[in-house]
Task: inverse folding
């Protein structure tokens, strides 16, 4: 099968969140399974095409435009979106479709990811780009929709006829996300529970009606993301002081000490260490952790937090670390090696998201024997088994996070036999991309009418 894979970020070239990991791993998994894949992604500032990972069957096309993509950020700076994102990603969508034709690829499937690529679904369906291709659109986070004023239609060369309820119109504006939801042959999102959640107002962000229609027609699918264990596994991780396995967990203590030293925490084996690797915004529940932090310090818990995003949250975390030196360690930014060390060195990983389409960090944490403490939403609920591989709480319960952490800390301190059993149960879980890729390929075969993928 020939697949055009369109994503606005992709490791190792660009990354603001989990989309970059998914784009890299899933496109590679398609190629490993014997399919021809062309990945189209912007050439942002600093992207070095020569660093392209070699996977037989997968090629990359970098969409170039100095005015649009040679900037300090991918989508904006200092928490503010670029005002011309409508033009930037309309250009990206058109250029990605053009690239397939220019490179002689007649794709069976155009696989689009999030709002930045979604306009390509409209171009294929309504303007006849890549005739004969089917379109599958994947929603990674419905909260980010690419909504722009009506003048966008003229700015990016779209017909006025697109501005209808059954088209791109969304409460008087233009929604790129809606282009993908309406004009794709099938819509997927990144976990089964999230596919159900987004059909209700609480998580649908105004698009729940469209999504219910697609679901009723059998055209909305929840396919769980996978984990790239070639990169995220304590047996092979060069960022840890020593490798370790489920059968030999003792070197995990060395990773904990290394993490404590790295973030200026007291080096104590007995202190429960809670890690957090996250984008800093309200969705991720960072504010809940900040509010709870004094109580956690009183409980004898340490916090190790890595992330960037909302400047206000960055400032609050910096002040928190200064106020609780030795107990709270914060690094603003994203450092890949430190992200790995937090996974390996923490006892627990916090993910108190208000909503979470899938989440990858909880999968990584389980492989590292680090027990996740998560809200029971989206993919977090799909992947964590309460009391067996982690701890869950109801995000709507004000005291839920505190209670889940207390349960985890009590288990850690009072029952190491059960703790080790939980660690090993999590490490035995297999969320590898091969499983998820096969689900996508079966869907591709359905929408194209092709024989089932091998």
Result:
């Amino acid at each position: 099968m020939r697949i055009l894979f369109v994503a606005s970020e992709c490791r190792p070239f660009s990354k603001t969140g989990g989309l970059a990991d998914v784009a890299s791993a899933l496109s590679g998994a398609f190629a490993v399974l014997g399919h021809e894949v062309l990945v189209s992604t912007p050439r942002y500032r600093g992207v070095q095409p020569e660093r392209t990972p070699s996977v037989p069957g997968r090629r990359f096309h970098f969409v170039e435009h100095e005015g649009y993509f040679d900037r300090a950020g991918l989508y904006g700076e200092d928490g503010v979106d670029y005002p011309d994102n409508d033009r930037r990603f309309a250009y990206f969508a058109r250029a990605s479709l053009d690239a397939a034709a220019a490179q002689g690829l007649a794709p069976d499937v155009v696989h689009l990811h999030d709002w930045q690529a979604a306009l390509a679904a409209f171009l294929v369906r309504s303007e006849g780009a890549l005739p004969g291709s089917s379109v599958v659109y994947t929603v990674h986070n419905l909260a980010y929709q690419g909504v722009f004023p009506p003048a966008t239609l003229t700015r990016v060369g779209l017909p006025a006829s697109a501005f209808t309820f059954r088209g791109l119109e969304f409460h008087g504006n233009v929604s790129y996300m809606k282009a993908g939801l309406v004009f794709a042959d099938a819509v997927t999102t990144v976990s089964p529970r999230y596919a159900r959640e987004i059909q209700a107002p609480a998580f649908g962000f105004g698009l729940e009606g469209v999504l219910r229609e697609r679901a009723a027609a059998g055209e909305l699918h929840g396919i769980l993301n996978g984990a790239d264990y070639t990169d995220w596994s304590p047996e092979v991780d060069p960022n840890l002081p020593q490798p370790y396995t489920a059968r030999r967990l003792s070197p995990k203590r060395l990773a904990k000490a290394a993490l404590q030293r790295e973030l200026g925490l007291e080096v104590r084996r007995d202190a429960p260490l809670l890690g957090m690797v996250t984008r800093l915004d309200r969705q991720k529940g960072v504010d809940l952790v900040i509010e709870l932090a004094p109580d956690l310090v009183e409980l004898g818990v340490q916090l190790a937090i890595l992330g960037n995003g909302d400047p206000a949250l960055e400032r609050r975390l910096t002040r928190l670390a200064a106020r609780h030196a030795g107990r709270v360690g914060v690094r603003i930014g994203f450092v890949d090696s430190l992200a790995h060390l937090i996974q390996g060195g923490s006892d627990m990983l916090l993910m108190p998201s208000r909503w979470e389409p899938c989440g990858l960090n909880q999968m990584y944490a389980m492989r590292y024997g680090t027990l996740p403490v998560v809200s029971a939403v989206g993919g977090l609920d799909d992947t964590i088994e309460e009391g067996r591989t982690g701890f869950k709480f109801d995000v709507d319960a004000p005291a839920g996070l505190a209670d889940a952490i207390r349960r985890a800390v009590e288990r850690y301190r009072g029952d190491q036999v059960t703790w080790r059993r939980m660690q090993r149960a999590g490490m035995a879980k297999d969320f590898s991309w091969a499983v998820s890729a096969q689900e996508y390929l079966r869907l591709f075969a359905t929408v194209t009418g092709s024989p089932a993928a091998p």
Notes: The domain at 252-427 is CATH 3.40.50.2000 (Rossmann fold).
